[in-house]
Design goal:
Elements lengths: L2 H6 L12 H5 L7 E4 L10 H9 L7 E4 L6 H9 L3 E5 L5 H7 L5 E2 L7 H7 L5 E11 L4 E4 L6 H7 L2 E7 L38 E2 L5 E7 L13 H19 L10 E3 L3 H8 L9 E4 L2 E2 L1 H8 L3 E6 L1 E2 L3 H8 L2 H4 L3 E3 L2 H4 L2 H7 L2 E5 L2 E3 L4 E2 L2 E2 L3 E2 L6 H7 L2 E5 L3 E2 L4 E2 L1 E2 L14 E3 L4 E3 L5 H12 L2 H18 L13 H9 L4 H5 L1
Parallel strand pairs: 1-2, 1-5, 2-3, 3-4, 5-7, 7-9, 10-16, 11-13, 12-14, 13-15, 16-21, 17-24, 21-25
Antiparallel strand pairs: 5-6, 6-8, 17-18, 19-20, 22-23, 25-26
Helix pairs in contact: 3-4, 4-5, 8-9, 9-10, 14-15
The chain binds coenzyme A (COA).
GO molecular function, one term: transferase activity
Keywords: Transferase
Organism: Solibacillus faecavium
């Protein structure tokens, strides 16, 4: 046996389960539900899905795939393009898969990420025939150590009929010890989750499985696909500065201290850039209790700003992958990976008092947020954990640039074309133009702040024009709208490629 494999396979009795990726892929049955490890391109099953892609060249095979969140190209791109995926949940972020979802070639269940484990327990998702689980090691006593994400793997492992392990020896051994696996029991019979601060460890370092379910072990050396976020720009830097000033005013008002509260920051370039803004600030001793640890978190650990960071996955660009995975020992006592039902648990988010920062595609003049559907119909990525956090956070903040597609689109519209986060879950909005603190405000009070502080100057007049006429038309109703016109900006965009009104008149 390869000595590198021998080192990672503590339970030697499992050695006779080692097979090739092709042999493991041959075990997957057509028409079944398959759970896979992986969360936002981290810790995903890779070689067995790619062997399934090969198998699908000669044979019809279609499966339902559930994961933690989005996976790298092996599944969400290649497996999708090979026509193997019938249904996909609960999150994706790939251009190929997105295209197939929006052409009715894949059915997509976009769901709150904390909900999946409960649905597995209830049998709504399942029966799960196989779990394909990437691991860095199997300990002597049979604990499976996941790689750089945990996601839904513990609950899949409990309920799957069979488990195929991809033992990935390219991941650093120093990952052993950073996981904290705690799995709540059945609803109605479970105890309170015993965590009262975000730095507490409450579980085991690996996933405990019924060893008889381990059907195959495939040795892999495939690295994770790097994250594709783009570096901060002047506008996202500006958004970060606006947010930092807001935190300063909250400290002045006595609602926060310099350590703030545990921070959650969403996926994508904008959320990463905003978090990056803390690097040059006076804030320190920060704790991150998030879903994904992106580049910014490790930069903040290096800058001495973050003392501890917990999440369910680590998703890094190529540059940061080299830096972090090459020196993981340096970060090991400062980071922790948990199952997504713990990182995103409403009970803990509320108890710990998180400050949650997520990204909107568009929002309306009353504070409803659309994070998922372009012009109300086409899926972008999914709601991910944003709803888990926004509704339960102490402070639910949404960030977005005030415009998209070179200025043709206003991110602030009369009525959102799809609602992910209702006005009741949105406390604060930040764009590169400014901030709207909506807490304690009635809908009509919010309008002025959102239009004046957050909208792009090119669209302000048009937004006021809509609101004033809606106010008149409804006699100042609780939430004024002109229903025939509320989505006309999106109609204009579809017809004329811009939301600017002059074009409608032309
Ligand atoms: N209408 C149409 N397209 C829009 C748009 C709008 N109102 N606003 C943004 N876009 C487009 C951008 O032009 C860009 O397109 P491109 O990839 O072709 O350049 C794309 O959406 C991404 O926008 P960007 O400004 O680069 O932001 P981002 O990378 O931060 O992603 C979301 C923003 C909303 C797509 C992303 O954060 C997301 O999927 N969020 C939902 C899930 C979530 O919040 N998870 C975190 C929970 S922990």
């Amino acid at each position: 046996m390869d000595p590198r494999v021998e080192k990672r396979l503590g339970l030697k009795g499992l050695a006779d389960k080692i097979v090739t990726a092709e042999q493991a892929a041959a075990l997957i049955e057509d028409g079944t539900v398959v759970g896979m490890s992986g969360f936002t391109r981290a810790g995903d099953a890779k070689v067995v899905p790619m062997a399934l892609v090969e198998r699908a060249k000669n044979e019809k095979i279609k499966i339902d795939v559930y994961t933690g969140a989005s996976l790298g190209p092996e599944v969400d791109n290649h497996l999708a393009a090979a026509g193997v995926i019938n249904k996909r949940g609960p999150f994706q972020g790939d251009a190929v898969m997105r295209g197939m979802i929006n052409k009715d070639q894949i059915s997509y269940v976009d769901a709150h990420l904390s909900h999946n484990a409960e649905l597995v327990r209830q049998g709504v998702i399942g029966p799960i025939k196989h779990l394909i689980l990437e691991a860095v090691a199997i300990t002597e006593d049979g604990l499976i150590i996941p790689s750089n994400s945990v996601g839904n793997s513990p609950i899949f492992a409990e309920y799957a009929e069979n488990i195929i392990i991809e033992l990935n020896i390219s991941h650093p051994e120093a990952l052993i010890g950073i996981h904290d696996i705690y799995v709540p029991g059945e609803q109605g019979k479970r105890d309170a989750i015993p965590m009262t601060n975000a730095e507490q460890r409450i579980g085991e370092i690996g996933i405990r499985v019924d060893l008889d379910k381990i059907q195959a072990i495939v040795i892999s050396e495939e690295p994770d696909a790097p994250s594709l976020i783009v570096p901060p720009d002047e506008e996202t830097q500006n958004m970060a500065n606006i947010l930092l000033d807001f935190f300063r005013s909250e400290i002045k008002a006595g609602r926060l201290t310099n350590e703030l509260m545990p921070l959650q920051s969403g996926v994508g370039s904008v959320a990463n850039a905003v978090l990056d803004g803390f690097a040059d600030s006076e804030f320190e001793n920060l704790v991150v209790a998030s879903e994904v640890l992106q580049d910014a978190v490790f930069n903040l650990i290096d800058a001495g700003k973050v003392r501890f960071a917990a999440a369910t996955s680590i998703t890094l660009t190529e540059e940061l992958q080299k830096k972090v995975y090459g020196n993981l020992e340096k970060y090991a006592d400062k980071i922790c990976l948990r199952p997504q039902e713990i990182s995103n648990h409403p009970e803990l988010i509320r108890r710990l008092g998180l400050i949650s920062i997520n990204t909107a595609l568009e929002l309306d003049i009353y504070g409803n947020v659309n994070s998922t559907h372009v012009s109300g119909t086409k899926m972008m990525n999914g709601i991910g954990g944003s709803g888990d956090f926004a509704r339960n956070a102490r402070l639910g903040i949404f960030v977005t640039k005030s415009y998209a597609k070179g200025g043709a689109i206003s991110s602030i519209v009369p009525m959102v074309s799809h609602v992910d986060h209702t006005e009741h879950d949105v406390d604060v909005i930040v764009t590169e133009q400014g901030i709207a603190d909506l807490r304690g405000l009635a809908p009509k009070e919010r309008v002025k702040l959102i239009i004046e502080n957050c909208a792009h100057p090119d669209f302000k007049e048009q937004l006021w024009d809509y609101y004033n006429r809606a106010f008149e038309a409804t006699g100042g109703a609780q939430t004024p709208h002109i229903l025939e016109e509320a989505l006309s900006w999106h109609v204009n965009l579809a017809k004329n490629k811009t939301m600017k009104k002059e074009v409608t008149k032309a």
